[in-house]
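Trying the structure run again after the queue cleared.
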Amino acid sequence: MSKRCYIAGAGEFNENELPDKSDYVIAADNGYTALLSNGITPDMVVGDFDSLGRIPDHPNVIKSPVEKDDTDMMLAVKQGLKLGYKAFIINGGSGGRLDQTLANIQILTYIAENDAHGILIGDPMCVTAVRNGKIMFKETATKNGTISVFCAGDKAEGVTLKGLKYPLDNATLTHTYPIGVSNEFTGVSSSISVENGTLIIIWDGGLKDLCEI
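Done. Tokens:
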């Protein structure tokens, strides 16, 4: 099985972050158009197809009703989890409607709570969620590039930031006080960890900044 599940959505699509040949690729509704325009045929297509406007001619289509509890992106993520994937790349899940972007950030926390890791690709920002764990950035992450850390939930305990302009050591973050906003890379390897809770991390860069994807 390939290591990553790459999901294309109907939002702003970053053409600089296309799937690897080894990725399992899922199109969520009109993410199908973005993939085809970049010469990529997905392995699966899911959604209610209100954005695409038609059911695509594809051998592996999962059609859902328009009126449903899950967004098309959530349906795609659930399919990836069902197939056993633990690493998710989501492109086309930000920009446009703010409510849809926020929904996709919540989906990152859903992925984290299912013992997996997801990254939402923007242009140029990326977002991820870390639950009871750690994320590491290469020293080549853009010096003076912005990185922000938020608490997803009432509180996140044991938060440690190393290698950034403003470090933290075993701190507690809450959802009502954004102390982690507008930190900066410094040109050295850096890390963010949390012992108990979930963090939302937003940085000015791409997948190349991470030590592991």
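The chain has two domains: 5-123, 130-209. Worth checking whether this holds up in the mutant runs.
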